[in-house]
Amino acid sequence: MRARAAIAMLLLVGAAIVGAAIAVPGIGRMPAAKAEETAEPAAETAKPADATERAEVPMQKAVPGAGLTQAAENEYLVLYFDNDSGGIAVKDKATGAVFRSNPPDALEDPKASDETKQELMSQVSLVYHVNGKEGDAAMNSYAQAMKAEQIEWGKLERGMRIRLTMGREEQRMLLPRQMTAASFERDILERIGDERRKRQTQAFYIRYSRDDLKGANGKELLAKYPILEQEDIYVLKSSVTDRDKRVLESYVKETGYTYEMMEEEYAKIGYEGDDAVFPFFKMTIDYELDGRALAVSLNAGEIEYDRETFSLVSLSLLNYFGAGRTGEDGYILLPDGSGTLIRFNNDGRKTTLLTAGKLYGPDYGLAQNPRGSIRQEFRAPVFGIKRGDSALLAVIEEGAAAAEINGVMGDINHSWNTAYATFTIRNKDWFIAENAFEQAPWILYEKNAFEGRIAMRYFFLAEEEADYVGMAKTYRQYLVDAGALRPVEAGEGTPFYLDTIGAVDTMVRKLGLPVNSKAAVTSFAEAGRMIERLTELGVRHIKLRYTGWYNGGYDHTAPYKLKVERSLGGERGLRRLAELAESVGAQLFPDADFVYVSENRAFDGFSPKRDAIRNLFQKTAYRVRLNPASLEYEGYEWVIDPGKMPDYFRRFSAAYDGLGLDAISLSTLGEGLHANYKNNNRVNRPQAERFAASVLAAAAEKYGSVMADYGNAYIYPYADHILRLPDTDSSYAIADEQVPFLQIALSGYVRYAGEPLNLASELRPAVLRAIEYGSGVYFKLNGGDGSLLKDAKLSAEFQGSPFDDWAETAADVYAEIAGALGEARGRTIENHERLAEGVYRTTFGNGRAVIVNYSDQAYLADGIRVEPLDYAVVGP
Amino acid sequence: MVPYETYVYDYEGEYAVSPDAYVPDRVLDARDMGIDSGNLQQPADLVAGEDGDIYIADTGNNRIVVLDGRFRLRREIARFVRADTGETDGFNSPAGLFFSGEGLLYVADSKNARIVVLRPDGELVRILEAPDSDVLPAGFVYEPTALGVDPAGRIYVISKSTNMGVIALNADGQFDGFVGAEKVAPKVLDLFWRLITTKEQKLRSAKNVPTEYNNITIDEIGFAYVTSSAIDARNQYNALRNRDKSSQYAPVKRLNNMGVDVLKREGAFPPAGDLVSSGRVSRFIDVALAGHGIYSTLDSTRQKIFTYDEDGNLLYVFGGYGSQKGVFRSASALAYRGGSLLVLDRDTAKLTVFRRTEYGDNIAEAIRLRKERKYNESIEAWRKVLKQNPNFEMAYAGVAQSNMRQGEYREAMKHYKLASDWENYFKAFAEYRKEVVGRIILLIPFAAVLAIWLVVRFFRYAARVNASGWRKSGRRTLWEELLYAFHVMVHPFDGFWDLKHERRGSVRAAVLIVLAVMGADIFRTLAGGYVLNPTDWRAVELADTVLTVLVPFVLWCCANWGLTTLMDGEGSLKDIFVASAYSLMPIVVISVPATVFSNALVQQEAQFLAFFSALAYGWALLLIFVGVMVTNDYTPFKICTPPSYRWSAWDLSPFCRYCS
């Protein structure tokens, strides 16, 4: 008995050892099949398009060959319907310039293939997906609507409405699948005149006769076609492609065969009929003239189509509106970083067809496309095309969060250079399961489709205005008119932004034992000394941004509650700092993060499972950064479910109110916009934008002054200060010039600065850039020496320099920039031009102009000499 | 913008971003260079001449393009006149260029299987045809793709798909032998195969010493930097990870005139590129020399440029792939010209000019001054570097060096720690320790006497308690049970006997002892000196401790009980557990003070710790052995003898009598 127990025990021990040996390397690996459970069939619940009532408008069909028909007119513009493409055209009355939605002679483009020609002639292109099947298919309005005579238009009070049906609304196909031999020969074959077509038609059918029943599989045949007992039949081969079917259908149509005859035939044979479904998309686009602009709108939720069978994936509007022909003088403007110009491909040196960017940066809910380099993101929903002495600026008014802006170069697969927006209706994501039997990607589509309104506004610029400066100023005026920008108050000078880090995690030895604890990189008291010292050195208008001051410092828990870091000096220290700041005229902007969470503890009000965003595969999604070594993405922070942001803000601000501060920094709210694809809790990107805006609005109302990073366009109405506003573009090989589009648009209204000057790879050019762009002075400085930051292993990103090393330099730089720029109020950028290679002049609204020289040669003009790497101020 | 992040690796192999040392200045295609006759085609190499001119091998167009200092076309060399025949001749896929010390341009005219030597103005000097085939191995195809010339005029040629190393030609172009082939010690298995295979089979099997170089450049003293991209990825990665200083799997080597690799690999990791994964190791395809021993290598895997100093310390890495200015599609060659770095892209046929930044200047300056033995100025330059990049370990090492010089050992320790330079850290620590010891030298004897007195007192006290426990009847206190472990430590035979039969110990005490062992293990991780654990980031992994202490212990108890039960042992599971736990006491008693002591040791003294740890474990093992014996009523031979002999063994045993 005992011996048996002993043997059992030994076996157990042996098993444990073997088990451990096997299990240890496998820990943490999830069986690939597990993910399968969470996936649901991609079928969308049937939802009829909720067609809101629109005023009835008398509609008329396009008349091919009739050219332009006037639809509306106002003081500045005339709107036409283009009968040849089904698109539109707009004439600027002042200059007579005509902007067409489709190039006039696109069909004769020698560079373009037939398919590309159809694209060129379309005003809408879309991509859809057949539910449950692999792959996407595309449609364009010229081939699928215009040529099928499915475009109609009607006049509105200030514009017109175009209704188009893309694809085939008739769901049946006039192509009999089975017919008795007699009627097939009588009704179809006999009536096809052309011998070749007759043979072709016959070849697509198989004839079964009674003799076949005697064969080996006669029984099966009989079960399939009971009519064989009496008559021979023709059956359409199952291998016939859709394209051939369409050809065949046209032959059948010509014979005068009708649906009724086909029904009758099917009844006779006892065939139920095929259940093929054709995609069709029916939509209404409104074009309205509004002053000097054309407003275009389309409601994605009102697009009628068979939602059970198809999913709309993406849609783009007016891809070639205002496109420039290769050979003409002109460029496209993309909001890449601060703005970039790509000249028309006139010398054939450009070989990249498409330059595209997703608005507002990456969506961490989706897998990131691999990149071998870092880029700027597209932060403003604008693009433009300049062509000769006229230009067009487009602003995406609604749906920007789902948009992607594309620039297309001509002379590659057609002759036209253009820029346009594509709207993603459903995101899709794919992944290849590790160790999966099949290495095919698994693709899922977003279920919470974007069903909102898409609205765009096109401005038509001429002559002096027709360049990037004019475009930026037009955008600025648009924002001002829309109430999104408020002018800088009087008395405000050039701000000095001081960015500093509070507490970081570090190992401190206590009684010889290392303890993970918080250490102050910059304590509140040190920050106070920094402000005092800078003031002493003559720096004014200090805006102190303080990061890492609450809930654990640099690695912070969710803003569910607010606990000021003790290691920095606690709440009292913070209050004292705020008082001190006020006494010297500085302003304190403590930074709060409502987008990302870097640390998770029990009972901190955040559970990654519940409160973090998930991807389409229902796995937790992370904020990722490009590892510069492996050039692969690595995840490092959770992303808060955007739907929960307002609640976090409410809780956080309840405590923040008690601190009595008059400003807040919401750096990450201006940087990232992410959807949540978690089942039962879905928030798509446009919805996420609304949540972000509501938090920003609440913060702006409560705390007066708001600061944010990068400046995604939805923060303009709320932010007074934008730091790290891109001041370069991505320097694409294809791009010709980087321009300060964002700076021109925001100048005089929002105060901004680029990247911290002390972290620039070269200080002098960065200072000149700040002067050229009318930026504030931005430094990222910390107390103590830099070794604490190294100790804290914060080496994946630059965290700032020691204050003592930089204080004097910073003060000198401030004096220089503030001196060059003067007062902040009314300091709009009125003009920006390139005088020579590396020499630029910026003219401000306050009458002042600066000339900066980045080159290594002195610049001399009009009696002004600008030394290399120097600047000159012209005017008061 | 700069489309990449510059970074270095720290001692642990983590990347740390750094300021940019080089930023893209201009990107030029043929038209920007003023070449009207169309784009460059697959340009393979470029060199900078002494006068600042740039020579590009426009391989696909069979010409050499010469640019002036402002990157404008100076001339094209497509044809040259042969002096012997007076005929004009041209290139066929010129793939490699070298500008020799005497100011001559050497061109590896690859498809013509020859080397063309020209004056900078394009005038032919001579043509070196392929070496005579009778001196080359059979089946050898001569296709020179890269070349270098040393000050003595010896020519080193890389021929495509040669795996015998670099071909050396003497100044007249005569074959001089192969240099730089890696010597591989034959493995035992290979020798075995060689014994049993036939001659034909031996011939068929490939030679096992493939050393395939892809590029070469020669420094001012005539040593050749060669790169190789044909090393097995796993071997190359392992050599890198294991900080292998040997040249066996090195993708870049510096060969002296004898063909021996003399490249220094004194950095944290050898110069072999990215420490990312074994799947995609860096593949070096070119080297450029920046002077003062600094060299850069071009990685074709991720299109990056790695720059090392003469000791093999990594200075900065930058680059990437994409369609932006400053990253590449397929970079093919790089060269320095003054402060700028030129990189040629084969795919886009463009030349990227990088400009050195202030940060790059400071590093170059610090290294130059160090090389010129101006240490104090060098330290100043390092401080400047540190001001810009507080993550740069090499700069901390530079500063620490000055601390050492000035006798600021504590500061030096701090900086060496930041530099993760542990070897030097312990040098500084030893000095510091000397200082401290010197200060408290008078106290040491007193402290030692006090410590010894305390220990003696404790053991006397334990002995007293244990002696009185002998007579005590009834339940003992936990304290008494624990103290009994000290008795077992020194009197194992009667100790274990009483442990079992007199119930001097208990399960609760045994559990506490096992916990104490685990505690000692954790304490060692947390409080051990840098000798044990050279980092400040010490996380307590409870799972680790459980795995290394608890699980083996429990397994041992179970296995022991199972075995001894089968072999008629008399111990119950409880007895075995208690005895085994009590046996572990020496580990606690020795390891805790040893851990404390480790904080006062330098690297060379780590043997002390090894000794203590061996002592602790040896003692514990001995106790376990005795414990098993006594608990199960075994003789010492029983444990290792089959059961049939046990009676005789039992009778012979002297221990048995002692035990009972």
From TrEMBL, chain A:
Cite the InterPro entries for this sequence.
DUF5696
Q: Which domain of life is it from?
A: Bacteria
Q: Where is this region: Disordered?
A: 35-55
Q: Which stretches are tagged as biased composition: Low complexity?
A: 40-49
Q: What is this protein called?
A: Uncharacterized protein
Species name: Paenibacillus cisolokensis
* Lineage, highest ranks first: Bacteria, Bacillati, Bacillota, Bacilli, Bacillales
UniProtKB/TrEMBL annotation, chain B:
Which spans are transmembrane here?
436-456, 509-533, 545-564, 576-596, 608-630
Supply the alphabetized keyword list: Membrane, Repeat, Transmembrane, Transmembrane helix
Tell whether Repeat is among the UniProt keywords.
Answer: yes
Residues in domain Yip1?
486-632
Q: How does it sit in the membrane?
A: Multi-pass membrane protein
- Protein location: Membrane
Keyword field contains Repeat: yes
User: What InterPro entries has UniProt attached to this entry?
Assistant: 6-blade_b-propeller_TolB-like, NHL_repeat, TPR-like_helical_dom_sf, TRIM-NHL_E3_ligases, Yip1_dom
| Family annotation (Pfam families) | NHL (PF01436), Yip1 (PF04893)
Which stretches are NHL repeats? 38-70, 86-121
**Segment forming the signal sequence:** none
**What is the designated name of this protein?**
Yip1 domain-containing protein
